[in-house]
Write a structure and sequence with these properties.
With about 475 residues, this protein is mainly α. It has a domain of about 120 residues. Strands 1-2 form a two-stranded antiparallel sheet. Helix 1 packs antiparallel against helix 4, helix 12 packs antiparallel against helix 13 and helix 13 packs antiparallel against helix 18. The longest helix has about 35 residues. The relative contact order is 0.10.
Length: about 475
């Protein structure tokens, strides 16, 4: 069953490359592939919840953590694929997107979906590294999109910086293999390493985690390794920006999470968790410094992603309840940021600009997407009653509960400052006088998509269903090394 999650996107990727396929058909295939992946991920999740972790073909394994990440990734791709239908229809009308672009997009889109699923399902840490490197190649050419010179520059910047990061992660993986030579029979099997972790050389494992954190942290956008991220998000088509923020960053943090229980058991949690807290707070501070000065809407959202990936790293550094908060924050950020990028993309098409000084009154100028943008920015800022407020509150509760008073106070301070900065941008963009434009009528699928995401953001802010909370706890137990 697990292998189907990898094979099906590969089949659709090949089908998208057929020279006779038109753009509309490519978009339908992308949506169908994402729907099948979501359905299969749901079946896998049900089996894990019912019967526990299981293995396919030795190299593929799924537990609560990977099942959670798999269905979250597939759902984000499904939402982005549905959104892409209208988004690229407008691009075709404008003459900046054609059948050739669509075929390339469809092939890379499905390939990226399959390689991300391989990241989540890999039982072998070496295979997980290969899958992460493959996601870099597939996603880079999605940034390239329509071939603008600025997009090409952003693509090369992403490729160069993230390739260096992935190379550092490879060094970390090789150090883990070196530590496993005597105690784990040269194995990079995660389950074998977990069993042998208390006996692995602590000095080698600590060095390995430094390389892993910096390497995969580069791909996830942790500061100060984040410099590729604003350019890539700003230049990529909006569906791609959404997937970058809601799926690729999650996959990179997932790779780090797989190493946490190994290093905790070998080294002890103190130094490892302190590094995560440090990079988390540094990322939030970096976001605070850059957010107020942003003049481009998508770059503003990019720096917001750096903030939230910092919150996730901080939560992982806290451990315990903080790890549950990290996973819940992944879910909440994925929903909110996807909606924000969807809104930014359609607003840019209607208003012909992403420059913040030129945007005002978008709620009345582009009612559906202006309202969606305002709601998503409220959620991303951490406003009540949206779900991000709950996960951030849980993070602070976990930190204060563990006596991390200084770290928690710093996080709270900069989250409050970012709240003010984001609200200032949101008010200036969304409120005010109407723009002199004639907006196109939103489709039924667009209305359903916006309503569905907003409902998730609101409902999870008011009530966390027991099955979801149990899943988050089970996934957190994997990260904490609790069997």
């Amino acid at each position: 069953m697990l292998v189907l999650l990898i094979i099906i996107p590969a089949i659709f990727a090949l089908a998208s490359m057929l020279p006779t396929v038109r753009a509309a058909a490519v978009m339908r295939m992308a949506s169908l592939a994402s729907f099948i992946e979501t359905a299969l991920s749901a079946v896998v999740l049900f089996r894990v919840v019912s019967n526990g972790a299981f293995v396919n073909f030795t190299l593929l394994r799924v537990d609560a953590l990977s099942a959670f990440e798999s269905i979250l990734c597939a759902t984000i791709f499904l939402a982005a694929s549905i959104y892409s239908t209208k988004y690229f229809a407008e691009e075709i009308k404008s003459g900046i997107f054609n059948d050739e672009h669509a075929r390339r997009f469809g092939a890379l889109w499905c390939a990226l979906l399959g390689t991300l699923q391989l990241v989540f399902l890999s039982e072998n840490l070496g295979l997980m590294w290969i899958a992460m490197e493959t996601t870099t190649l597939a996603s880079a050419f999605l940034i390239y999109g329509r071939g603008k010179s600025s997009a090409i520059e952003a693509m090369w910047k992403y490729l160069m910086i993230c390739s260096v990061g992935i190379a550092l992660a490879l060094v970390g993986t090789m150090l883990v293999a070196a530590a496993a030579r005597t105690e784990a029979n040269d194995s990079l099997s995660w389950t074998v390493l977990l069993a042998a972790a208390p006996h692995l050389d602590s000095r080698i494992m600590l060095a390995a985690f430094v390389f892993i954190l910096v390497g995969f942290g580069t791909k996830s956008g942790l500061a100060p390794m984040h410099s590729w991220l604003p350019d890539a998000y700003g230049q990529a088509p909006s569906p791609v920006s959404a997937v970058f923020s809601a799926a690729i960053l999650n996959a990179s943090m997932y790779a780090i999470m797989r190493y946490i229980p190994l290093v905790d058991a070998s080294v002890g949690g103190g130094r490892v968790r302190a590094m995560l807290v440090f990079f988390g707070i540094l990322s939030v501070i970096t976001a605070f410094i850059r957010i107020p000065a942003q003049r481009d809407l998508k770059r503003l959202l990019a720096y917001s992603s750096i903030e939230h990936i910092g919150v996730i790293a901080f939560c992982l550094g806290t451990g315990g309840l903080g790890t549950v908060a990290a996973l819940f924050h992944m879910l909440n950020h994925s929903a909110s940021k996807s909606l924000a990028f969807f809104s930014a993309g359609r607003i840019s098409q209607e208003c012909k600009t992403l420059e913040i000084p030129k945007l005002h009154g978008v709620i009345i100028s582009v009612p559906l997407w202006g309202t969606a943008l305002f709601i998503s920015m409220l959620a991303l800022a951490g406003a009540v009653p949206f779900s991000i407020f709950v996960s951030e509150l849980t993070a602070l509760r976990a930190a204060f509960g563990k006596g991390m008073y200084v770290s928690a106070a710093l996080l709270l301070l900069f989250l409050a400052l970012i709240f003010a900065a984001l609200m200032k941008h949101a008010i200036s963009i969304c409120l005010g006088r109407k723009l002199d434009i004639v907006f196109s009528k939103p489709t039924r699928s667009e209305k359903i998509l916006v309503a569905s995401i907003v409902a998730v953001m609101l409902l999870l802010g008011l009530f966390i269903p027991t099955p979801l909370w149990n899943l988050l706890q089970s996934a957190a137990n994997v990260v904490e090394g609790i069997r």
